[in-house]
Amino acid sequence: MPAKDKPNYWWSLLTMKCPRCRKGPMFVSHNPWNLKKTLKMPERCPECNQPYKLEVGFWYGTGYVSYAVMIALSVASFIAWWVIIGMSVNDNRFFWWLGVNAVLLIVLQPWVMRLSRAIYLNFFVRYDGNYKNTNVTTFDSGTSGYYEKEN
Ligand SMILES: [Zn+2]
Fold first, then answer.
1. 38, 65, 84, 140: which has the fewest Cβ within 10 Å?
2. Which residues have CB less than 5 Å away from ligand 1 (the ion)?
3. How much distance in Å is there from the Cα of 33 to the middle of ligand 1?
4. Cα(69)–Cα(108) distance, rounded to whole angstroms?
5. Model-level pTM?
6. What percentage of the chain carries pLDDT values higher than 90?
7. pLDDT above 80 (res 51)
8. How many angstroms separate the alpha carbon of residue 51 from the centre of ligand 1?
9. Do the Cβ atoms of 43 and 115 come closer than 8 Å?
10. Across residues 90-98, what is the average pLDDT?
11. C-alpha span between 116 and 61 (Å, rounded)
């Protein structure tokens, strides 16, 4: 597949696409704030058949990723606040930022949870432009029947 057809990494990450083909959606519902379906994922990618949950308890590690994402968001909002509104030791603007940032993190929580799963899966599953002719990524390619048994 020519490089120009390769979907952009950041775009596929932000739109929560399968890391292997960058085409199939990782989540059933497009809207992360549909809270009943926030973390509802298909068993496998509808486009390339890549399993999303690579082992039992696979998503536990996303807790660390979402922590890192929340820190990154806080740093970004801190800098934005500093540039746009400014901060001083003589007034309450810093505490306003604390409050606004806390609300921001709560509102963004469903999206952060999804993004963390997308980032986490991208650690383990590489993009494969030739996905139609290759095998899906699993933790143990020697025993390819492993996932078939589980399903
Ligand atoms: Zn896929």
1. 84
2. 18, 20-21, 24, 45, 47-48, 50
3. 23
4. 11
5. 0.85
6. 83
7. yes
8. 8
9. no
10. 95
11. 9
